[in-house]
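ingest -> validate -> predict -> emit
validate: passed (alphabet ok, no gaps, 138 aa)
predict: started
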Amino acid sequence: MAGQSAKRIAKEAVKYKSIYFYVLMASLTIQFFFKKLYNPRILFGSTGFGFSVISGIYAFTYSSIKSRLNVGVGYSIYQDVYILNTLVSILSIFSVYSWYIFLLIPAYAIYKIGKLIVNWVFTPEPVSLFSFSKYFVL
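emit:
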């Protein structure tokens, strides 16, 4: 029985790493050919810059997901950014405005921080077991 959890984590890590890698490669390949980035004139323009930004985000999120899968801890925030990046990568073929989807990342951060602040501000005070009127004359 010892080591079964580690074996299961390693088995799932191999499976999910390959899935994330295939999605990454398919997305970048589709974008490369549909945007005609094989032409050096286009590759070194603004379209190539967008491709390099998407590739950089993919490299960061994929390596983070991969390392967290090896350890067996959660990777949900990296997965969210990975999914948004895939969405932007595919939709940027059809529209220039798909880059605005990346604004969801700071909006989500503002939402989480705001939720923390609201919960902290509106937390009720604990009921005191000590009563002033019982021991002191007011």
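The chain has one domain: 4-135.
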